[in-house]
Amino acid sequence: RKEVEQDPGPFNVPEGATVAFNCTYSNSASQSFFWYRQDCRKEPKLLMSVYSSGNEDGRFTAQLNRASQYISLLIRDSKLSDSATYLCAVNSLYSSASKIIFGSGTRLSIRP
Amino acid sequence: GAVVSQHPSWVICKSGTSVKIECRSLDFQATTMFWYRQFPKQSLMLMATSNEGSKATYEQGVEKDKFLINHASLTLSTLTVTSAHPEDSSFYICSALGQGYQPQHFGDGTRLSIL
């Protein structure tokens, strides 16, 4: 089983739709969680950190469920520019060193 | 926000050449840097974790003698692809991590093409 798993998609939704991604992680000792966005042929860029209480940034809402070991990302009123691959990332402690494990990414395509 | 600079952004060279890629954290001290490789339409694959002042930790299946990593200071890590061959052609991305459970910040990536 992969340490961090995501549905690879692709998700193909119309502009204005709401779309949600989930990501599960296997290490219960994981400490921090993030969503990254990666455009084609570009490096990943941090979208938002994910906190236990849930957090919102404009149209984006991230939530963490420690009991079930998953994080989610909700995008409301999707725009064409939201088309990208979304990577979840989990930061855990391995042998006293911090390491971030990425999911394989979920591809999102917004159509006009 | 935190900035990570990676250089060069694009390399095209002949088979057998060694290629050095630099990763610098510009406005923070990076105790740990990571090197990833990404083939087209595939996910980021962690190659190695580079800790300042100590040997890098390589992921399973990554040849340490092929991919030399040096992390001599808190702001610079280098990856050298030795005797590169066409199958080494890929997108190489570094990232830097500060103290604690902070997010990683990525460099712009280096697109390596071996002819």
Can you tell me about this structure?
The complex is a heterodimer of chains A (112) and B (115). Chain A is an all-beta fold. Chain A is built from no helices and eleven strands. In chain A, strands 2, 4, 5, 9, 10 and 11 form a six-stranded mixed sheet that branches. In chain A, a hairpin with a 4-residue loop joins strand 7 and strand 8. Chain A starts with a strand and ends with a strand. By secondary structure, chain B is mainly beta. Chain B contains no helices and eleven strands. In chain B, the strands form two sheets. In chain B, strands 2, 4, 5, 6, 9, 10 and 11 form a seven-stranded mixed sheet that branches. Chain B has a four-stranded antiparallel sheet with strand order 1-3-8-7, with no helix packed on it. In chain B, strand 7 and strand 8 form a beta hairpin. The model of chain B has no long low-confidence stretch (mean pLDDT 89). At the A-B interface, strand 5, strand 9 and strand 10 of A face strand 5, strand 9 and strand 10 of B.
Condensed summary:
Chain A is mainly beta. Chain A has strands at 4-6, 11-14, 19-25, 32-38, 45-50, 55-57, 60-65, 70-75, 84-94, 97-102, 106-111. In chain A, the strands form 2 sheets. In chain A, strands 2, 4, 5, 9, 10 and 11 form a 6-stranded mixed beta sheet that branches. A 5-stranded antiparallel beta sheet of chain A has the order 1-3-8-7-6, with no helix packed on it.
